[in-house]
Design brief:
Layout lengths: L2 H7 L4 H22 L3 H13 L6 H11 L3 H15 L3 H22 L13 H8 L17 H4 L21 H10 L4 H14 L5 H18 L1
């Protein structure tokens, strides 16, 4: 499924759909990073990424949003906050949020070693977010095309392209061992920290867009709690 196909479901042009993904993706990533600060939150995210449904769909996306936002009011507030900057109605953004969340989770699965991300053909959403959520992995140069490839369109959403930080190896010596330790419960603090650093890299932590998304999500969360 590509941007055009998703946009048609909501009566959006491809340009409008790009704008919506540009606005929503960093905030979803911010929610995942924030949730991962707790041991159970980190385990839930990794378990969903490695064992969940890899299709782009609303149901799995709503499960993700429940994990990271905890309230439909937060999703509603995020959509309202981003409506003005994206030029897309808040109601449509709220409907797009679970789709964005399922795509982001699929990309986390791919980057964390859980296999393929959400299925896609050429220019599919998994490819689009491959660079976005690469967490600083060095981007390969994409061939230029008349309108710009879909990978190019969103390649800088989370500031991908910097030097990836090297996380220390776990005692088991591999990312797979580290993930098994975390998901199995009773993981050593070093494994938990390594998992968070890896997830932070995948989700664009420390970038300007990531920081801005953190501020927006914190503001929405405070407003909901009042």
């Amino acid at each position: 499924m590509d941007l055009s196909a998703i946009g048609r479901q909501f009566g959006l042009s491809e340009e409008q759909t790009r704008a919506a993904f540009d606005a929503l993706t960093p905030v979803v990533a911010s929610g995942m990073r924030r949730s991962a600060q707790s041991e159970t939150g980190l385990q839930d995210i990794l378990n969903s990424a490695l064992n969940g449904n890899r299709e782009v769909d609303t149901a799995s996306g709503n499960d993700v949003l429940g994990q990271i936002f905890g309230s439909k009011d937060v999703s509603r507030g995020v959509a309202q906050q981003l409506s003005a900057s994206s030029g897309i109605g808040a109601a449509v953004l709220k409907q797009l949020l679970p789709i964005v969340a399922s795509v982001v989770m699929g990309q986390v699965a791919k980057k964390m070693g859980g296999g393929a991300a959400a299925p896609s053909g050429g220019g599919g959403l998994g490819d689009i977010l491959g660079d976005i959520l690469g967490g600083g992995q060095q981007r390969q140069q994409q061939p230029q095309s008349g309108g710009g490839g879909l990978g190019d369109i969103l390649s800088d959403i989370l500031g991908g392209g910097g030097q990836q930080r090297q996380a220390p190896q776990s005692q088991g010596g591999s990312l797979e061992d580290m993930l098994k330790d975390i998901l199995g419960g009773g993981a050593q603090p070093e494994a938990m920290d390594q998992g968070r650093r890896r997830l932070d890299d995948v989700l664009g932590g420390g970038t300007q867009r990531g920081d801005d998304a953190d501020i927006l999500l914190d503001s929405v969360t405070r407003s909901v709690r009042q």
